Amino acid sequence: MNKLFENLGVTHLYSTVCHSPTNGQIERFNATMDGKIATLCDERRTNWDEVLQLVTFNYNTSIHVTTEQTQFEMMYGRQATLPFGQQNEIISLTQDPEHSQKIRIFLKKIVHEARNNIIKNQQQYKARYDLNRQDLLLKANDLVLVKTRNIRNKFDIRYEGPFKIIKQLGSKTFIVQHVKKLTLTRQVTMDVIVPLVKRWNLIQ
Fold first, then answer.
1. What is the span of the domain harbouring residue 154?
2. Integer Cα distance of 80 and 77 in angstroms
3. What does the pLDDT look like over 96-118, one tens digit per residue?
């Protein structure tokens, strides 16, 4: 599988359970599609499959915020013909022997522009994210609290623990173990944990 990814030029990234930012692009796409589907669905939200084609076509013919291009044009090298677009009464088609070469040149140009727009937007997102970001210096045996999953009401506890870090998988990913329930271990990321510090009592 790794050889296939290498041949296709694909970078395989692993995601963490219940950590939506790992799949940020997919989560952003799903949020957009969910909103569009909800708009066209009936009141009971039971006919979502009937509007899926319409929503997909709308998404593919809309200008993407990051690439500043439409998905349709990047795929086919031309803008989509929309029902409300102005049409000529008589359409004449002429054969162009250089058409395929022109399409390849145009697609190469538009993909290059989209890639530059993606890089520009990623740098802007990173700058905004890093502005208020604080990296924690954590190591094995440190005690932490872990953010509670699936909070059902506003009175539920926000953090559980304490947990002890037993292994570091990456710069921001850890395996933690509950200090009392030793069978309870979790894989967590830095954004859902809070470090605990020891409080020393000073005797005067």
1. 143-195
2. 9
3. 788 788 888 888 888 888 888 88
